[in-house]
Amino acid sequence: MPKNFQIIDVGTRKGCSIIAEIDEAGMMRVLGVGVVPSKGMQKGIVVDIDAASRSVQESVRVAQSTSGIEMKSAFVSITGRHLRSVNNRGTVGIFTPSRRVSPGDVRKAVAESRNITIPSDRSLVRIIPRYYILDGQVEVKDPAGMHGFRLEVDTHLVTGSITAIRNLIDCVRGAGVEVEDLIPGAVAAGEAVLTEEEKELGVFLADIGGGTADIALFKQGSVWHSAALPIGGYQVTRDLSIGLEVLFQLAEEAKIRFGNVTPGYEAEGTISLGDGYTVSGREFHEIINARVEEIFHLIFAEISSHEHEITAPAGLILTGGTANLPGIEALAQELFRLSTRVRVPREVTGPADMLYDPAYATSVGLLLWAAKHGAEVWWKAEELIPATSPWITSAAWGMAWGKAGRIT
Length: 408
Known about the structure:
The protein is of the alpha+beta class and 408 residues long.
């Protein structure tokens, strides 16, 4: 029987809900898509729960109407400047007579890695095992069933503001949908636009959306660093609106129609924005270029401390709606001195033509993550933020952990 997967991508500028299925052959087919303008969101964070919930509800309604399937729970994206990441290591001894690593030993090692100091206003969002070490043997992919005395695991931990997480969960629940799992935007986008070879070799990802830029470094097949910056296409449009003294919507439409950040590009004459507005083409492009270059400098500042020339030989992958700006690939390559490509999502069929766009990298990535790791969900929303404590108990964590030895 085909298995259904549902996702909700709560973006700053748009909300996207998708219902898809995987058939017996392992092929994913999109059944329904709902895309609506987002309300109540600012730089990836809920600032008006009622407005944001109505937007989610509308996107879910459209996806349900086109698919004929009710969305009861969904995998949900999370982003925003409140997200932080850190890498840590967990260690356990193997004490069984056979000295064979059990799934329980793997769970315990990963659980040990979460023992870090987290401020009281923050909570653990996700643990991503990067690799295991068994008796000094580095980069063991799956130690379950192997013999050894000491098991270690290196993990990537993502934490977030309890307030921001609660508001996001309440926003989705207010639309009548339970949160199946929260996935950081950069991790989801990586599923949609990166190849396994790139992730193994070392690659940087910048998913530049409307209100945030989700940044990640992938290496040896997993994520090593991730962050969310409060910058994106909204800031470009806002600069145009203020600098040219035009309405925001006119500035947004003009950015899409006339924007070009190709190095050396020189605009001449005037640009008609509609409603009787005309502006200098040169001034128009100077404003766009200045803001996009600033966005790239902030991204560069985030990744430069990670020895990008050494750790990311596969270069930089750009995605997200802002990656649709003509010339952005060439501009990033000139500024970063890194091989740069713009990518669209992959591996979806069905009525999904609109999804073959950088703007939907996170949305499609959520689907791919759900299909790949859906059976391995290690928390539920009520366990992520219990009523009395921001911590997940070790017992609840162990019971909710899925198949051992798999990256979650």
